[in-house]
Design brief:
Shape: globular
Distance between the termini: 19 Å
Number of strands: 11
Bound molecules: flavin-adenine dinucleotide
Radius of gyration: 18 Å
Mean pLDDT: 96
Order of helices and strands: EEEEEHEEHEHEHEHE
Strand content: 25-35%
Structural class: alpha/beta
C-alpha cells in the first residue's frame, strides 16, 4: 500500500468535538464497511505523525469519509478536528483490515455495539446495509456519554426506519424524558438488547479497549460464539 494524497473537500460537525472529513482521494481502490486507513500529517520540518481512522461510509468513487473525535491534548485529532482547512491536503494509506468488515454478501443478522467514537465503522456498516437494501435483522447498541456527544443523530432515525433496532445507553447525562437513567452499559442490557445467540449472528464491537473487552465478554456470557464476535479497539495507538 502506498501513501496517497487526499484533499479535504467538505466537512461537517457531528458534535462540538467530532468532525466528519470528506476527502477526495484520486485512485482510491474502494473498501468494505468496517475497514480503516492510516492518515499521515507532515510538518514543515519533515516531522510525520500517523494515526488510524475508520472509514465512516461505504465506498463512493474517489470520495471517502472519516469522523474524527477530538482527544484532549491529541496531536493528530486536534488538528484534524480544528485545524485542517477545506482545500488542504493530507496523506492516506489504505484500506486496512479484513476481519472487522461487513458486506451484504454475508447475508446474516448482526449485532453492532459501539462505545463513543466506536460508532464510526459501525455507521459505515449501517450505511452499506441501507444502500444495499439488506433486510437481515440488525441491532445497534450505542453507548454515549451525553446527548451532545451523539453522532449521526438524523441517520439513527433512518436506520430505525430501515428495521434496525437501536438502543442508546447514555452513560453520564440522559436526555429529558429518557426512561433509562444515565449509567454505564450493563452486561444484562447487552444480553437482552442483542439478538439471541445463533450460529449465523455476527457481532461487531468497537470503541476504547476496556469497553470492547467488557462488551465482548458480555456477549460471550450471553451465549454468543466467540468466533462470531469481531472487535476493533480504538487506541491509544502509541504511535
Ligand atoms: C483501527 C483504528 C481505527 C480508529 N478509528 C478512529 C475513528 O474513526 N475516529 C477517531 O476519532 N479515532 C479513531 N481511532 C483513534 C485514532 O487512531 C487516534 O488514536 C486518536 O485520534 C487520538 O490521536 P491523537 O494524535 O489525537 O492523540 P495522541 O497525541 O496520540 O494522544 C493524546 C492523549 O490521548 C490519549 N489517546 C490516544 N488515543 C485515544 C483514544 N482513541 N481515545 C482516548 N484517548 C486517547 C493518549 O493516551 C494520550 O494521553 C482509531 C484507532 C484505530 C487503532
Amino acid at each position: 500500500m502506498r501513501w496517497q494524497a487526499a484533499e479535504l473537500v467538505a466537512d461537517r460537525f457531528e458534535t462540538p468535538s467530532a468532525r466528519t472529513l470528506i476527502l477526495r482521494v484520486p485512485g482510491w481502490p474502494g473498501h468494505r464497511a468496517g475497514q480503516h486507513l492510516d492518515v499521515r500529517l507532515t510538518a514543515p520540518d519533515g516531522y510525520h505523525a500517523e494515526r488510524s481512522y475508520s472509514l465512516a461510509a461505504p465506498a463512493d468513487g474517489d470520495r471517502i469519509e472519516l469522523t474524527v473525535q477530538r482527544v484532549a491534548d491529541g496531536e493528530v485529532s486536534g488538528y484534524l478536528v480544528d485545524g485542517l482547512p477545506v482545500g488542504a491536503q493530507i496523506e492516506v494509506r489504505g484500506p486496512v483490515g479484513g476481519w472487522f468488515v461487513w458486506t451484504p454478501e454475508m447475508d446474516g443478522p448482526a449485532v453492532l455495539i459501539a462505545g463513543g467514537s466506536g460508532i464510526v465503522p459501525l455507521a459505515a456498516m449501517l450505511r452499506a446495509r441501507r444502500k444495499s437494501g439488506d433486510t437481515n435483522p440488525f441491532r445497534l447498541i450505542y453507548s454515549v456519554r451525553t446527548p451532545d456527544e451523539l453522532y449521526y443523530r438524523d441517520e439513527l432515525r433512518e436506520w430505525r426506519d430501515a428495521g434496525v433496532e437501536v438502543f442508546l445507553a447514555y452513560t453520564r447525562t440522559a436526555p429529558a424524558g429518557e426512561a433509562r437513567a444515565a449509567a454505564r452499559l450493563a452486561a444484562d442490557e447487552i444480553a437482552t438488547r442483542a439478538l439471541p445467540p445463533a450460529p449465523d449472528v455476527t457481532c461487531y464491537v468497537c470503541g476504547p479497549t476496556p469497553f470492547v473487552e467488557f462488551a465482548a465478554n458480555a456477549l460471550v456470557a450471553a451465549g454468543h460464539d466467540p468466533a462470531m464476535i469481531r472487535t476493533e479497539r480504538f487506541g491509544p495507538t502509541g504511535k
